[in-house]
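In response to a reviewer's request, we include the raw inputs and outputs for one of the modeled complexes. The three entities were modeled together in a single run.
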Amino acid sequence: MDALLHQVLAGLATGGIYASLALALVMIYQATHLVNFAQGEMAMFTTYIGWSLIQAGVPYWPAFFLTIAFAFIFGLALEYFVIRPVERAPVLAVVVVFIALLLILNSVTGWIYTYTIKTFPSPFPEQPIFGRYLSPHEAGAIGVTLVVLALLYCFFRFTPLGLAMRAAAQNPESSRLVGIRVGWMLALGWGLAAAVGAVAGMMVAPIVYLDPNMMGGVLLYAFAAALVGGIDNPWGAVIGGFLVGVLENVLGAFVIGNELKLSVALVIIIGVLLVKPSGFFGRVQVTRV
Amino acid sequence: MSALLELQGVNAAYGATRVLHGLDFAMQEKSITALLGANGAGKTTTLRAICGMVKTEGAIRFNGQDIRGKKTEDVARMGIAHVPDGRGTFLHLTTEENLRLGAYPRKDRDTVERDLERMYGYFPRLKERRRQQAGTLSGGEQQMLAVSRALMLAPKLMLLDEPSFGLAPLVVKELFGILRSINAEARVSMLLVEQNAAMALDIADQACVIETGRMVLSGPADKLKKDDAVRRSYLGY
Amino acid sequence: MSRRQLILLGVLLAAACVLPFVVSNYRTFQFTLVLVYAIALLGLNILTGYNGQISLGHGAFYALGAYCAAMLMDRAGAPYWATVPVAGAVCLVAGFLFGLPALRLEGLYLALATFALGVAMPQLLKFHALEKWTGGVQGIVIAKPPAPFGLPLNPDQWLYFFTLAITALMFILGWNLVRGRVGRALVAIRDQHIAAEAMGIHNSLYKSLAFGVSAMYTGVAGALGAIAVQFVAPDSFNIFLSIVFLVGIVVGGLASIPGALYGALFIQFVPNIADEISKAAPWAIFGVFMIAFVYLMPTGVAGAIRLLTTRRKVT
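The model returned the following structure tokens for the whole complex.
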């Protein structure tokens, strides 16, 4: 029972990270109907930038916020220079561009920083506060995730810019008619998604250690979480993320062992999709023939 | 009095299909102008051309300024509010969010709040449903929402594409009555595209008829209304 | 096919036959792999290009075919040429079976399901319970067959011709398939699946068949690839392979038979070029090439060629 509780709580911690990345995926999907396969590598790359800042002597929290700012601009720039030119290409061609971005980011990071594993500091204290159920970093990660999610929610719900971004994602044509610069909204969306990814990266790095391939599994779980929740539903993505995190930990510890953890979790997720093809909270698309 | 809106020799095409052929058109300030014609004549395309939503050639001037080739959002920011056919409601946002979006480019926060209350005054049913998802509103209510949203821009010119579509006659009468009083009080010019020529001519000052992408007739609305020959050949009643 | 196209094809075939005698053994081996990938890409194209079902997991079928060949040759002493049809048959069934539940999934959801398959495969192959057959992490080593009937060809050259013959056969089969009723049905399902069903096309059957046939092609390619490389190991068949296949059909040209060949040339040689340009970050250069191709030729090499040739016809 003890061990189960620990796994569940640890699962919530990693789940929060999956939820953040899944949210970033859903944000871009809602605006463009595309899945950003490079989201994980973007998060990884920006986390490395954070690492560099800390190595250069910048204290943790300033480095944290600087990294977020960098990620925001990076995401903006990527949308404007790399994605926008291929907006009108066939869907699979755009998928290839995302994959190319993934490869480029992964390779360039490995080149600049080498593939040796590095440690990334955690801002939370070492001493266990919650006993053996939850490490301070895991608790901190859950906290940070919740704060980020709350901020995003308030932004989209209560600010005019957030409203405009939601409108641009749902109905670009009508948005133009009310004077919203849809192109800018798209770029901002990418910036925000990148910033959220950076937070996810900086929270997961102390757990899995900093390495160019660290986000591969995380992205996969985030992708699965977003789909289980319904790819067009931000709430679903968040709940899905926590669910997947807990599932992964519990299954890995008690049922299959860490070796096959990844594949079995995925198989289960697909099983879920076979029962509910558009995810638990997704909008069932009714198409007029 | 120089024209508020002028189109000269406008061609518009969807891909390879040309819809407007050298359209000439002018509209005065503070008027309600009806743009009439059969299905497929090019009425909607004319409105879309003004808003930069379709590829156009020729000259389009608003208040003397050249607006052809401008992006849709920039045309909107110049004070042209377009109520598109199909209404273009943000279905997954609330009624009030839809209205606030209408005022997105405006910087005068207090006047925007006052205008919001004014819209609720014109259309009390919208106030009742202010927190409801706009997609759950009835057809008539969505039309009122669309018109209000356009008015929230505090526009100089409103383009309305078939506002009577799918509405019961009584509702149309109510709506058109409100449009006429808005035109009188707030001095908003209106370009009204309608298939229902009778109702449109009732509230319009000026009227034009488009046929296969060309302007074939224009003049004061009551003249067109009284002219039997015109009515029978161009307006079908 | 027009007379001009037939002549071009003849020239191409002739050149292909002369190739092993004018280039080094290593180059011949590389071109053998080009042919292998072309078969795999044709398979993927039948599913994704013509039938619109996205697969991010075709590397798994390639692996299945490869391991079939390796296990039959190493554990059961079967002759190399027999392993190819067996691999094809096994993958046909496996693909069809996978295609059945996949019917419920569309677009992104199918992409995830196939992606999971692609990710899971190496882990499955390493699974210790199956080690006796799969050779676990170390994999299986097999011998390259010598030329039969005492032909004056070295093993690389013989394997090249063997592969060339099978490639030609698979391409002819594929060409017939997409040109005929089945091909039209597949495309109809891709473009307007509701209308297709309404016209009497049994969507589920065709879609599962498409999966099966596509997997069969990729399995055959896997078997040939294993024989050429003389080695199978779980980590050679990771998710990257599936991704590279997808890149191959997009760059080569979706819904195009020659596109499979262009794509195969791209995925075989461009990584080498990328490696020469930058030892430190070869995948980055490969990524840049990918983006360049998509920007310049969004409909793939085949699409670009089609555009050029039709324009000339008009003028």
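As requested, we also summarize the result in words. Residues 31-238 of chain C form one domain. The mean pLDDT of chain C is 87.
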